[in-house]
Each structure stands twice: as C-alpha cells, then as structure tokens.
Amino acid sequence: MTPTPADRPLLSAIALTKHYGRRVGCEGVSLDVHEGEVLAVVGESGSGKSTLLSLLSGRIAPTSGSASYRMRDGCTRDLATLSEAERRLLQRTDWGYVHQDAAAGLRMGVSAGGNVGERLMAVGWRNYGAIRQEASGWLDRIEIDPGRIDDSPHAFSGGMRQRLQIAKNLVTRPRLVFLDEPTGGLDVSVQARLLDLVRGLVTDLGLAAVLVTHDLAVARLLSHRMIVMKGGHVIETGLTDQVLEDPHEAYTQLLVSSVLQV
Amino acid sequence: MPVKHPADPQSDHPPHLSLSGVSKTFTLHLKGGIVLPVVHGVTFDVGPGECVVLDGPSGAGKSSILKMIYGSYRADSGSILVRTADDRKTGDRDKSHSAQIDIVTADPRRILALRASTLGYVSQFLRAIPRVSARDLVAAAVREGAAISRAETRDDDRGHEQAQELARALLLRLNLPERLHDLPPATFSGGEQARVNIARGFASRRPILLLDEPTASLDASNRDVVEALIAERRNDGAAIVGIFHDREVRERVATRLVDVTRFAAAATAAA
Questions:
Q1: Mode of pairing for the β-strands spanning A208-213 and A225-230
Q2: Contact assessment for residue B123 and residue B193, using Cβ atoms and an 8 Å cutoff
C-alpha cells in the first residue's frame, strides 16, 4: 500500500540534538507529528523540552540531526534548508507559536484587532473591512467582547491576553501549532477556560500541535500521545493514557505519582 | 463451551476480539524495582452478540485485562486481536486483506483509530471536561459513532440535531432530568456523573464494548436501564466484555463467564 499524504507525518524529527557548549540541551530525539494529532512533551524544568520545541519550530538550529515539515504543496522540506524568508512565511502562516508569556507573542503596542489582523495581512488580506470583520469574529470566538477590538493588550487580563495570543496564531488557519506552557502562570479558573477553548479549537480545526507542559493534567486533557523527557533525552513515549496509567520508566512513575489528587 | 454468534452466522468470520497468552506485570521502580505479577496466559475469544463477564475476586486483574484490550495498559506478551469495523464491511470482497489488528504490537496512532471506530470503554468514573454540558458530551459520542457509517452527515446541521435528540433521549432514559442536560457534569453527584458516562459509552455504536463496573454506583431502576442497553447492543451484534460485581446483574447480563483467578494464579507462579 502506498502511503496517502495523510499517512505521512506533518512534522518529523530524526536524532535531533542540541548542545550548548558542553551542556546537552537535547540529544537524539526522533518523533513524528501527524495531522490532527496533539503530542505532549512533558518533563521537569531543564529536561530539554523547551530546547526541543525551539528546534522543532526552527527557532534555533540543531547541532546535529534534522527536523522536516510537509509544506502545503505536499513537499517535505528539511527546516535547515529553508531560506530565512521561507521560514518566516511558514511561521506567520502555516504554523502558530503560543508563548507561555502572552506579551512575548503579542505586539503590545498594537490593538487587539491589529494583533489578529497582522497575520491576515501576512497571507495577503488587504481589505480593511474584511480584516476587521474576521478579527472581530475571532475575538468573539475566544470570548472577548468584540467591542474591545481597538483596546491595547495592556488593558487585558492575563487570561484574555493568552486567549488573544491564541486567536492571533489561529486566524491564518495554520496546520501546526507549538504551545509552550500555554497555561503556565494563569489562575486555575482562568486555566480551565483557556484549556476548554484550546481543546475545542484543536478539535474543530483539526490542528496538529506540539504541547510542552510540566502539568500532566493539561497534557491529559489536550494530547493524544506523549513523550517524557529527562536530561535532554526522551525516556518514554506512548498514548497519553498509557504513559499516565501504566508508566514503565522510573522517572515517569515518579512524575505520575507526584501529582496531587483532588 | 461452544461460542455462539447469533448476529453473525457466517462461521468463517473470526471473533470480534481474541486474546491469546496475554501477560502483564508491573515493575514498581519507586519500591526498589519489585515486580508485581498481574495476569499470565489470558486466553479467550468474544464473538458478536456475546457478553463475556470477567469473574474473580478484587485484585484478580479483571480491570487490567480490560485496560490492556483498550490499550491503556501495555501487555508484556501475548496478542489481543481486534477485528476492525472497516474490515467487517469489506471482508467478503477482499479476503486477502488482513482483518485483524493486534493491540499489543499496534502503534499508538493505530490504537487511537481503533478507539474511534471500534473500541468503546465505559467505566463508572466520568472524566469531566470543564464547561462542556452533559448533552454535548453525549452528543459528541453519538457523532463519533455516526462518523463511522455515515461520514457525510458528520458535519451537517441535521446530523447535529439528531445527535442532540439521541443524547437527550438517552439521558432521560437513564433518569437524568432535563434541567441537568445543559450543565457541565463536574458539579453532578457521583451517580449522576456515572449515568452521563454510561450514556456516552452507549451513544456511540462501536462493535466492541468494554464495561468496567458501569452499574456500581447505580440504583436498581438505573441498573435495569443499563441491562436493557447491554441487551440492545448485543442484539446489534456488538461484542461486549464486562466486569460486574453485583452477582445478580452478572448472571442476568452474561452470556459466558471467564474466570480470571487462574490467570492471576499463573502470573504468581510465573513470577
């Protein structure tokens, strides 16, 4: 049987390695992400999960190994061979990147509507009215009063800013979104609302996502598959419920048993 | 004991589910690496229209067997063959095509696809999702099931309305008053949550259904409803594997008992 496009991974890493001088960022990581699939990367601070996310999203170059992405035209390209212009276009259109700190992902000096509209302009939208209407629709979708379209993100709460960052990323209908601790630093009640929103959007839009989190409950709610990292290495992989209910490695067992039950 | 396949008289069809030599141990690294034997050599088949009830005392490994079939526990050895929904439709046309998938060796994406199309799992515990109403939870399950047979109706409004109506009917049948249907079940009582979970499990018409004590927190009238739902699914040709602690329920729903005690004993002997 010849593989159909859907059988080919969207994002693929082979032996991806990053050394910072003599220190290991991550080493020998191989993984695939398919369309519509959410992969969680869990581990403690310093386990290499953020380094891995930066490598996968082409934000830093690997010391060795490679990451490749199947472009919209069906061609799979090694990220290292993309020109700077191609990489930026990919990052502004077919990918999203949601930072833990919303201020890092938003342009704080630009209005809420401007933040959302900016990405539309990057994919060729020119009609002001249409851009404004689309931005307004997205504000509504992320439960922000469209009447606040001209407000600065400075005037928004932490949870609203994070939701705005998500809308900004999804407005161009990317196929892949990188989520770096998207609920970190938010109050628990705000987290629940954000998680529900992300879960609904991922399902409705059929997004693929790489989710970095240290919160196993967040991973459980959002992800299909999971990889566990320690000391820059992947130590365990599997379906999310397999890894959480039947962890095999000592470190994974420690992680799972350390979660407080409520 | 001969296996009857009332809904599927063609004897050349393999059973829906076939376990052979399935073994499982837990290695507890945080307890000095001690190895806990769970089950060894688990072997049984479940055909269409059967309700096989796993029998044995607490701790004999009944839930572990269900979880291995669902793929949330990883078996150490053996095979768990599942006949897929797609292959049942095309089986006669294309006999050379492999009709079974082994859960023990299947890659995670294959298991996810099997869960979407073929394997349903109902426990007594609802994993509530914040802010999603009871009816929407159940309706989503209806549409998952519908997506298998009528992919074209999945996204249209009529499909949505039908799913909502089916969800409403199922929740009412399980005596969950309508005023609760629009609320997220996080605040419901344990018994109410269990009934939402059961409605969800029976809403999607997957050909294999795994039931982990679904009746444990139900009163007598709701137990009757669940027993009726099980009978209906069996008549549809579903293969059901269940755990029921209540002896009377067990005797009413089971078409066959599989004693798990011997598999647990074999695991202890093998350790």
A1: unpaired
A2: no
**Least CA distance to B76: which residue of chain A?**
A248
Question: Chains A, B: CB contacts under 8 A, how many?
Answer: 50
Angle, helices B134-149 vs B157-173, to 10°: value is 120
A259 touches B at CB < 8 Å? no
Strand boundaries in chain B, DSSP class E: 17-28, 34-46, 51-55, 77-83, 100-102, 119-123, 208-212, 239-243, 256-259
Contact A245 B109 (CB under 8 A): no
Task: Please name the residues between 111 and 140 in chain B that touch chain A, using a CB distance below 8 Å.
Answer: 111-112, 129-132
Q: In the prediction, which pLDDT does B5 show?
A: 44
Ramachandran angles phi, psi of B53, nearest 5°:
-105, 125
| Chain A partners within 8 Å of B132 (Cβ) | 196
Tokens of B120: 């349903």
pLDDT digits (tens, 9 = 90+) for B193-215: 999 999 999 998 889 999 999 98
**Cα A185 from Cα B150, distance rounded (Å):** 43
User: Under an 8 A CB cutoff, do B129 and A245 touch?
Assistant: no
pLDDT in tens, A51-67: 999 999 999 999 999 99
Asked if A49 and A29 touch (Cβ cutoff 8 Å), the reply is no
Of B29, B111, B132, the CB nearest to A239: B111
Distance of CA A158 to the CA centre of its chain: 18
Q: Do B72 and A242 touch (CB under 8 A)?
A: yes
Could you report the per-residue pLDDT of B102-141, keeping only the tens digit for each? 999 999 999 999 998 899 999 877 776 777 899 999 998 8
Q: Residue B156's beta-bridge partner residues? A: none
- Closest-CA residue of chain B to A239: B108
Q: What's the whole-model pTM score?
A: 0.89
Domains (ranges, CATH) in chain A?
A: 8-94+174-262 (3.40.50.300), 100-172 (no CATH)
Q: What is the ipTM of this complex?
A: 0.88
Q: What is the DSSP string of B170-236?
A: HHHHTT--GGGTTS-GGGS-HHHHHHHHHHHHHHS--SEEEEESTTTT--HHHHHHHHHHHHHHHHT
